[in-house]
Automatic annotation (TrEMBL):
It comes from Aquisphaera giovannonii. Keywords: Membrane, Transmembrane, Transmembrane helix. The keyword Transmembrane helix applies. Pfam families: DUF1304. This is DUF1304 domain-containing protein. The chain crosses the membrane at residues 58-75, 87-105, 111-132. InterPro entries: DUF1304.
Length: 136
């Protein structure tokens, strides 16, 4: 990897994580029924009955998006070490949520759309620091 691009790796990974979870939050808070039918395969009547739970889940995704954005700002503008800790927390949260979503609903989209951005955030946060120390 180009040394010039290395400092931007955590920024790109955290931006992806924030954007993806902001999109999840929007769909779950404002369009839960359609999202539940489309993504989870729920019958429309079940999606309607679970709407309050879905909106609550959307709020959790909004918190994850805000946390990833916070980690990005701290990492880039304030203190990379503290930003790395925040990125570790929010990246791990997304990774675990994606794996749990897959285990619960058996839909690979959870691994690709949620767990993978979490993993990329973890790699983005730690890879530059490890390479700077000479660990390859």
């Amino acid at each position: 990897m180009s040394p010039e691009l290395l400092p931007w790796l955590p920024v790109a990974a955290l931006a992806l994580l924030a954007i993806v979870h902001a999109a999840f939050a929007y769909k779950e808070i404002f369009d839960w029924e359609a999202a539940a039918v489309e993504v989870l395969g729920m019958p429309p009547e079940v999606a309607r009955a679970c709407a309050a739970v879905g909106r609550n889940q959307g709020l959790s995704n909004a918190a994850l998006a805000a946390g990833a954005a916070w980690a990005l700002v701290v990492f880039r503008l304030q203190d990379p070490a503290w930003g790395r800790q925040l990125a570790t927390f929010f990246g791990a949260w997304a990774l675990v949520a994606g794996v749990f979503g897959y285990a619960t609903f058996h839909r690979p989209g959870f691994l690709v759309k949620q767990a993978l951005p979490g993993l990329l955030a973890l790699l983005g946060a730690w890879l530059p620091a490890l390479l700077a120390r000479g660990v390859e």
